Amino acid sequence: xxxxxxxxxxxxxPGYDSLGLALDLRDELTGEVLTAAGTLEVSxxxxxxxxxxxxxxxxxxxxxxxxxxxxxxxxxxxRLHCRNRIPHARGLGSSSAAIIGGLVLARAxxxxxxxxxxxxxxxxxxxxxxxxxxxxxxxxxGGFTIAGEDDGYFSVRTSVxxxxxxxxxxxxxxxxxxxxxxxxxxxxxxxxAAADAARTALLVAALNDAPEHLHRATRDFLHQEYRRPxxxxxxxxxxxxxxDGVAAIVSGAGPTVLAFSNGVESAETTKLTARCPxxxxxxxxxxxxxxxxxx
Length: 295
Ligand SMILES: Nc1ncnc2c1ncn2[C@@H]1O[C@H](COP(=O)(O)OP(=O)(O)OP(=O)(O)O)[C@@H](O)[C@H]1O
Ligand SMILES: N[C@@H](CCO)C(=O)O
Description:
The protein folds into 2 domains: 2-158, Ribosomal Protein S5, domain 2; 165-285, Alpha-Beta Plaits (2-Layer Sandwich), CATH 3.30.70.890. Helices cover 34% and strands 27% of the residues. The chain has helices spanning 59-71, 94-109, 113-116, 119-130, 136-141, 177-182, 190-209, 214-217, 232-243, 267-273; strands at residues 2-11, 15-34, 40-46, 77-84, 144-150, 152-158, 165-170, 248-250, 257-261, 281-285, 293-294. Strands 1, 2, 3, 4, 5, 6 and 11 form a 7-stranded mixed sheet that branches. It is globular and about 60 Å long. Bound molecules: adenosine-5'-triphosphate and L-homoserine (HSE). Adenosine-5'-triphosphate (ATP) binds at residues 10, 27, 48, 52, 58-60, 82, 84, 88-96, 98, 135, 176-177, 252-253. ATP binds at residues 87-97. GO terms for molecular function: kinase activity. It is found in: Cytoplasm. It catalyses: L-homoserine + ATP = O-phospho-L-homoserine + ADP + H(+).
């Protein structure tokens, strides 16, 4: 079985640990059940090649094992091949893609697997493995999602204006999400929380059907500034783009910078890509509306 799963951008500025957007850049995972008991063959091409482990600790394998455990059937042996296009530790949801991809792949490999591991159970397990739901929600559903934690995790997919696309500026080196989360304070001033709530609410409207509000709506008060020491060049690019009226943010936990645009082939997108800093890579991307797909 083969599944493909999209990159995602979380937070989108003020929507810390809640808002997420699926992007048209996909990892492809192919899994096969082997009859030889105890066999595990993992191969990786593209992002993470030569760096991620090729044993039971590989994130896709761990996620597949979690799914098999819920379903109650571990296969005798397993072969996994990953074709990775989502860069790792850049704020583009590589870990969520690995988790959602692994859970869905395992479910597809077991006849009737979706009867036991239904969509909600799968989403809960994915958010539990990741630790927060904002990337796994769009990786699973596609499009623009609002997620959070209550009695378990919840997620709602809402519409995204078809005029909207993005440009991502990806630095050569990454920052681990764990490191970026470690820079956040325990508490924030009430005034910042209130300002952030207003922008988050506006951002939902802006992404739904009012992109003219995106610049104001993407101003964050909860995390980007605290993370500046770990990614000064990214914050400098955000500042520079915003000063020129571009709705730019740090993607997820960074250090990728995401700028909203109006179509992958538009003049605005061409102008934005010309601003890619030396040594970084830049991708104009459409919004993915499919989420994870079993081929
Ligand atoms: N496809 C994959 N296969 C195996 N391991 C992966 C894969 N994707 C991510 N990982 C593991 O997760 C780590 C990156 O996760 P991390 O949460 O730090 O960043 P991210 O998911 O790319 O960014 P963000 O969560 O900010 O969007 C990698 O260094 C690797 O250990
Ligand atoms: N909301 C998360 C996204 C990265 O996984 C963060 O900013 O830490």
